[in-house]
């Protein structure tokens, strides 16, 4: 059933020739909005007109959820976001603007302009929070402590223990190489910096000190890059060891990223702030900058 004035029903009925449809089945359809908030922003809607989530049948809800998962995976593979929001709103107060239930699949990047912020102060706590929990639990037919948590898997575990062991060995060998490369960076940097800073101190050469400081920054980026790769492969190792649905012998660490990860490994602030980077390269850079300032001051006298 469609609603004549509903724009989403018109798209579902193939009455909008320029609609940017990315997926369609018997029950649902996914398409790009006219004004996407981010690259890859997609709407997923049921074909039957339903003003809100409360108007869906359980079967329709399941069909909608399956399509959302399918589209989210596809968008993640296509645009490689840093994260993703799955947003579903009901009612004007919740910012619903089209009265046809729909789900926003919104890929996120660190520099996008989307703002979805929760208030810092809790709406309720303590006794009030417990009362609300009991009220909700009673209405979904649950009693406190009576239902055991269920775990769900997106695919059967068909990998043999021996194959998993070999897979883990392959990943561990990569982790070891990254760790060794990081240690080598520090080993190579030390004599370079010692020679540059020593010469700069003796000759009062701010230029040589600046070259030494630049070397520290370059090697710090290399070191942080190796650290980021090591962390990514450690996540992959943990997922394979836990039996998560990782393809057999896959060596792509983005498969273990919980919210989608970039395919490159450009280091971020988390790596630069780590003790293995900040406590090693930070003091050497500070010494170099101090020598530059000292050289400039003494050479001007």
TrEMBL record:
Span of the annotated motif Histidine triad motif: 100-104
HIT domain ranges (all copies): 7-115
Bilayer-crossing regions: 208-227, 272-297
Database matches in InterPro entries: Histidine_triad_HIT, HIT-like, HIT-like_sf
Biological process (GO), any one: nucleotide metabolic process
Biased composition range(s): Polar residues: 143-153
Region (Disordered): 140-164
Keywords tagged on the record: Membrane, Transmembrane, Transmembrane helix
Active-site residues from the entry: 102
GO MF annotation: an example: catalytic activity
PANTHER family assigned: ADENOSINE 5'-MONOPHOSPHORAMIDASE HNT1, HIT FAMILY PROTEIN 1
Protein name in the entry: Histidine triad (HIT) family protein
Organism: Cellulomonas marina
